Amino acid sequence: MALDHSMPVLIVDDYSTMLRIIRNLLKQIGFEDVDEASDGTQALSKMRDKRYGLVISDWNMEPMTGIELLREVRADDKLNRTPFIMVTAEAKTENVILAKKAGVNNYIVKPFNADTLKSKIQAVFGE
Amino acid sequence: MSRGARGEDILKQPFDRVRDYVAAKSEGEASFGDVVALAEITADSMQTFFAAIDRTIYRELREIAEYITNLRSEIAHLRAGELQKDRLPKAGEHLGAIVAATEEATNSIMEAAEAMLAAAGKDEATFKAVVNDKVMTIFEACSFQDLTGQRIARVVETLEQIENRIGRFAAAVKSDAPAAPAAEDPRERRARELLLNGPQDRGVAIEQADVDALFADKPVSA
């Protein structure tokens, strides 16, 4: 799958500040079509209404966490091929292993910079 | 000396008297006077026994009363009312204000940065004016650190006071026994099952390079 900067990207985080930071970073990288959701439930609803080329999600949210969202996405025949990057402060090996087993495509530890975000997005799309 | 050993000593003396009396009278048949004498010895021994028990119970009750008095004094030193009505709500207010101040400052800084990015395509004089103005906004926004630092210090002070009071109370009630593990509530169970650990301290948290190694199936650094 090639990296297409015009594809819609969904960012999921319960902190509006973090949504704003990621949106600005994505804009700098070249992504303009960016939607936001404040938790897994809202994200899942948006994903069922619109086809996203990439999901960038936090882990620790309520009521639906990032790992629960990932499991829902991977269990859904229509959504399970959507690239999914976890961007989180959950910086324990067990979290990374769990996310990997659940089918995450990449994992970024907060705090992070634009270069890390860019390189992980590129890695997901094989660039 | 244990209560059982003390009781045995109390009983030993009258029993010795009974044994001596029976030994002295063993040659003839027991008369009515012998029975009365034995009854008197038995009653005497029981009185001695119960008097000793009374003294033991009295001493133990006095110790319990002293313990309760001490406990009441230590509970008073906890000043739970002050913590509940004043310090803890105030600490909560400080933390709420810290979150609000950091959020406000972050938004101001990001607005300034976004405005500078937006001005990048304009003429040089306009761009310079925007940058000068927004850099000043960023400097001003960074002043939040002073206020939040002071508020954090107050919260830390409250936590230290609670720690000291609980430590003193635990010492006073001689609470050195390991506490039974608290029952896990649904929120804690959810956090455990979904690995909601929150941010980790430096040294505990793994680095991005370790994450990358896990994705590349390479060994993670210690």
TrEMBL record, chain A:
Listed SUPFAM superfamilies: CheY-like (SSF52172)
Keyword Phosphoprotein: yes
Top-level taxon of the source organism: Bacteria
Protein name: Two-component system chemotaxis response regulator CheY
High-level lineage: Bacteria, Pseudomonadati, Pseudomonadota, Alphaproteobacteria, Hyphomicrobiales
The keyword Phosphoprotein is assigned to this record: yes
Classification via PANTHER family: TWO-COMPONENT RESPONSE REGULATOR, TWO-COMPONENT RESPONSE REGULATOR ARR22
Keywords carried by this UniProt record: Phosphoprotein
Species this chain originates from: Hansschlegelia beijingensis
Domain spans labelled Response regulatory: 8-125
Modified residues (4-aspartylphosphate): 58
GO biological process: phosphorelay signal transduction system
A Pfam family: Response_reg
